[in-house]
Amino acid sequence: MTAYTAVVTVRLKRGVLDPEAERTQEALERLGFELGDLRSADRFEVDLDADSAEAAADRADEMAERLLANPTIHDYTVEVEEQ
Amino acid sequence: MTAYTAVVTVRLKRGVLDPEAERTQEALERLGFELGDLRSADRFEVDLDADSAEAAADRADEMAERLLANPTIHDYTVEVEEQ
């Protein structure tokens, strides 16, 4: 077994409104920053033991499917690195 | 001017409690997943025009200092990529 960190990034699907990101962008613009767009995402870093990086990614993928992401509104990506 | 995307990742400093991450970890364990630790972070993807990648990173850094992160409890990192 090897120790891995799986990074699961959960984003709203294109077309789903994100009022929090809109307010953040407005607040930055009020501070004088010029920006084209701002998107926000949740990042989960999960430490786990697995036989291979592929097995760790599969497990993180299942965690995203079952709990971390809501498939109706979210897309997610999984990246695995050895600790 | 070139179009860049700056990714600002905002994490709680080590030692700052993160009840939401703890509840998420517990919920995953209740579903039968074994994991060593789970940390959560906020990820902001900011599209902006700048003269260089360095200038874009400086601007994103200032956004983090002034609004996106709370220096008392957060650390942050900035990565810039050309669009």
Multimer state:
homodimer
Our count of domains of chain A comes out at 1
User: Beta fraction of the residues of chain A?
Assistant: 35-45%
What's the helix-strand series of chain A?
Answer: EHEHE
Subcellular location (chains A, B): Cytoplasm
Organism (chains A, B): Haloglomus irregulare
Main location (chains A, B): cytoplasm
EC number (chains A, B): 6.3.5.3
Description:
Chains A, B: One of its GO terms (cellular component) is cytoplasm. Chains A, B: Its EC number is 6.3.5.3. Chains A, B: This is Phosphoribosylformylglycinamidine synthase subunit PurS. 2 copies of one chain form a homodimer. Chain A has helices at 19-30, 53-68; strands at 2-12, 37-50, 74-82. The first copy, chain A, has 83 residues and is α+β, with helices and mostly antiparallel strands. The first copy, chain A, has one domain: Mth169, Chain: A (2-Layer Sandwich). In chain A, strands 2-1-3 form a 3-stranded antiparallel β-sheet. The first copy, chain A, is elongated. Chain A starts with a strand and ends with a strand. The model of chain A has no long low-confidence stretch (mean pLDDT 97). The interface between A and B is medium-sized, with 30 and 30 residues. Strand 2 of chain A pairs antiparallel with strand 2 of chain B, so a sheet runs across the interface.
